[in-house]
From TrEMBL:
Protein name: Tetratricopeptide repeat protein
Organism: Vreelandella titanicae
Signal peptide, first to last residue: 1-25
Keywords: Signal
Pfam family, any one: TPR_19
Source species, domain of life: Bacteria
Length: 364
C-alpha cells in the first residue's frame, strides 16, 4: 500500500509541477483511498479535469470530518482538485482548495508550508495581490528564498505599498552575492522605482552609483543624474553629467544644454561658461543673442572679471542695445574697471539711455 502511495505522490510531482508533497510523517491511508487517488491521478494526466474536480471534491468533503488519516486523505483530494482547477485557469478556486487542504489536521507542518507557498502563487495568478502578499510574507517568515523575496517585493510595489516594498527589497539585495552585477535589468529597475517612491532617493542614487563605470550605458548615467537632482544633490548631478559627457556617453545637443543648466544650478558656472565658449568657438552652437547672453551671465556668476567683462562687451556689440551697454558699464564699475565703465556708459548714453547719463555724471 505504502509503495503505491509513493508512486502516486511521485507521479503527481512529475505531472503537476506546481504541487509537491511527501507522505513522510503523514497518517497511513486505507487501500481503497490509495487506489482511488491513483485512479484520479491517471484521469488528471489524461485531461479529464472536470471529472477529477467533481470526484475529488466529493471525496474530500466526505473524509474531512474523520480522523487524522481521513483528513490527510481529504487534503490529498483537495490537492488533486486544485491541480485540475489550475489547469483550467481557475486559479482562485484552486487556491481555495489548497487553503482548505493545509488547514486539515492530518497535514504536517512541512507540507502545509509547501501548500502555503503554492497558494500564494495561485492568489497572485488570480490577481488577488493583497492575499498573495499576506501568504508569501507568512511563508518567508520561516523560509529564506531569493526568488520568493523578489516576488513579494514586486507584489508590494504593484500595490504601491512602497515602505513595505523597500523593507523587503533590502532583504532581497542582501541575498544577492554582488549588488548590481547579479541583478537582472528588471530587478535593477524595480530597485530604483521602489527606493524613489519610498522617499529614499539618496539611497537609490548611492545604490546606482555603485554600479556606474566607463562601460555603463548612457541611460544609466542619465538615470543617476536624474536621481541626484531629485535628491537635491545638484553638484552630484552636474558631476555625473559632466563625466558622462567627457566619456562620450552623452552626445546630443539637448544633452549639452542640460549640462549647462546643471552646472549653473550646481554653483559651477565657470564650467558652464567653458563649455559654452568652446561650443561657440567650434561652431557647435549658434553665436546669437541668447547664447552670448548665457555665456556672459555664466562668467558673471563665476566672478571671473576679465572674461565676464569681455563677454558682456561682446554681447553689447552684438545687440547694440542701450540696456546691454549699461549693464556692461555697471558690471565694470562694480569691479573697479572705470575706463571700461565710462566707455560703456557713453555708448549707452549715445543710444538715448538717460540712466547711463547719470552714471557718467558720477565720473566728473
Amino acid at each position: 500500500m505504502q509503495r503505491h502511495l509513493s508512486v502516486l505522490l511521485l507521479s503527481m510531482c512529475l505531472i503537476l509541477t506546481t504541487w509537491s508533497f511527501s507522505a513522510l510523517a503523514s497518517p497511513a491511508l486505507q487501500g481503497g483511498v490509495i487506489d482511488d487517488l491513483n485512479t484520479l491521478q491517471a484521469q488528471l494526466q489524461d485531461g479529464a479535469l472536470s471529472s477529477v474536480v467533481e470526484r475529488a471534491t466529493a471525496q474530500a468533503e466526505r473524509l474531512a470530518p474523520g480522523n487524522q488519516s481521513d483528513q490527510w486523505a481529504s487534503a490529498l483530494y483537495q490537492q488533486l482538485a486544485a491541480g485540475a482547477l489550475a489547469r483550467q485557469d481557475q486559479h482562485a478556486a484552486a487556491a481555495d482548495r489548497l487553503a482548505i487542504a493545509r488547514g486539515l489536521k492530518g497535514v504536517d507542518d512541512a507540507q502545509a508550508a509547501r501548500w502555503l507557498r503554492e497558494e500564494a502563487s495561485l492568489r497572485r495568478a488570480a490577481g488577488q495581490r493583497d492575499q498573495a502578499i499576506d501568504l508569501l510574507s507568512e511563508w518567508l517568515s520561516s523560509h529564506q528564498d531569493s526568488d520568493a523575496t523578489w516576488q513579494l517585493t514586486r507584489l508590494l510595489a504593484q500595490q504601491e505599498r512602497w515602505d513595505e516594498a523597500a523593507q523587503w527589497l533590502d532583504q532581497a539585495l542582501e541575498q544577492e552575492p554582488a549588488i548590481n552585477e547579479g541583478l537582472s535589468e528588471a530587478q535593477q529597475a524595480l530597485t530604483l522605482v521602489i527606493y524613489r517612491n519610498a522617499g529614499q532617493g539618496g539611497r537609490a542614487l548611492g545604490w546606482l552609483l555603485d554600479g556606474l563605470n566607463a562601460q555603463s550605458e548612457a541611460a544609466e548615467w542619465r538615470q543617476a543624474a536624474g536621481l541626484a537632482q531629485q535628491a537635491g544633490q545638484s553638484g552630484v548631478a552636474a558631476g555625473l553629467w559632466e563625466t558622462a559627457w567627457q566619456l562620450g556617453k552623452l552626445t546630443e545637443q539637448e544633452d549639452f544644454w542640460l549640462l549647462i543648466q546643471l552646472h549653473l544650478a550646481a554653483g559651477t558656472p565657470a564650467r558652464a561658461a567653458e563649455h559654452l565658449e568652446l561650443a561657440l568657438n567650434e561652431g557647435d552652437i549658434v553665436r546669437d543673442e541668447s547664447n552670448l547672453r548665457m555665456l556672459a551671465s555664466a562668467w558673471r556668476q563665476a566672478k571671473d572679471v576679465e572674461k565676464a567683462l569681455s563677454a558682456w562687451q561682446t554681447l553689447a556689440l552684438h545687440t547694440q542695445t542701450a540696456a546691454d551697454w549699461r549693464s556692461y558699464g555697471q558690471l565694470a564699475y562694480a569691479w573697479g574697471e572705470n575706463n571700461q565703465a565710462k566707455q560703456a556708459f557713453a555708448r549707452a548714453s549715445s543710444l538715448g539711455d538717460e540712466e547711463a547719463e547719470q552714471w557718467l555724471a558720477s565720473f566728473k
